[in-house]
Design brief:
Length: 336
Amino acid sequence: MNILAIESSCDETAAAVVRDGRTVLSSCVASQIEMHTIYGGVVPEIASRKHVEAVTALADQAVGQAGLSQRELDAIAVTCAPGLIGALLVGVNFAKGAALALNLPLIPVHHVRGHIAANYITHPDLEPPFTCLCVSGGTSAIVDVTSYTEMTVLGSTRDDAAGECFDKVARVLGIGYPGGGPMDRLSRGGDPRKYPMPQAHVQGAELDLSFSGLKTAALNLIHNARQKGEELDLPSFAASFGQAVSDSLVPRTMRAAERLGYGKIAVAGGVAANGRIRQDLQAACARSGDRLYLPELSLCGDNAAMIGAQGFYEFQAGKRAGWDLNASATRDISLG
């Protein structure tokens, strides 16, 4: 089954053709990073306009690179939630038009479910059930993936997402946007325990997360050093910040995995590319005996291949959208 997938939830316009949920025939991404770097973050109106400019040509490019004709497509999958509402609407409306014109079924896909499905591309042997740590610019959650389409959030952030914190701290340091990659590179060779960082715990919800206090502490450390004319050891600062994020994510993920007992842990989302988190999870799984599944780096960020992968399993479960499909800025992953 050949699925043309469209992703436009934030600042990447993406189109891909995926066969049977596991084989990527093409994957095309038009990045807006250079434009949004000027402003230190995503400007929703600009993102929407750039999606409008790129989506049609990108979809044609994806079909062409897959070596298929439009007649050989079997369905259209599209991210419908969560994300920036204007950006989502561009992808949803394009997908509805394409499905109508080609007389193909339309498959709505939850963005975070797509990130989880990126692991199916990297690891053809991976099947549910498993525990998944989902970490990106907008999401930090630990998910019980019971089946390809049945998922339950076991714990999530009460405030900021981990990826958002990386972005904000990197912006104040002036080292680039998005912040995850620059912070990871800066941390190499640094002492991860030089600058103590706070850890938040949510009373009565041991798997829930909170990063607002960590973000504030890190920003205060930067501002106080500047006001006093002191020079931060930037590699150690970045390493300490990354270690604090990992110390919040990894132990909770391992507790959830122990509770579920599946013996399999996956990681999904842009922050899944972080070297410290990957290293700490690998060490933790080596101790626990759980098998760890990490998506390849090219599939950690937003892309349409992951939407095509999840779209296949949503289709198999009988999920279809009508011409009244709308976008939603927020949606629980369990609702799909």
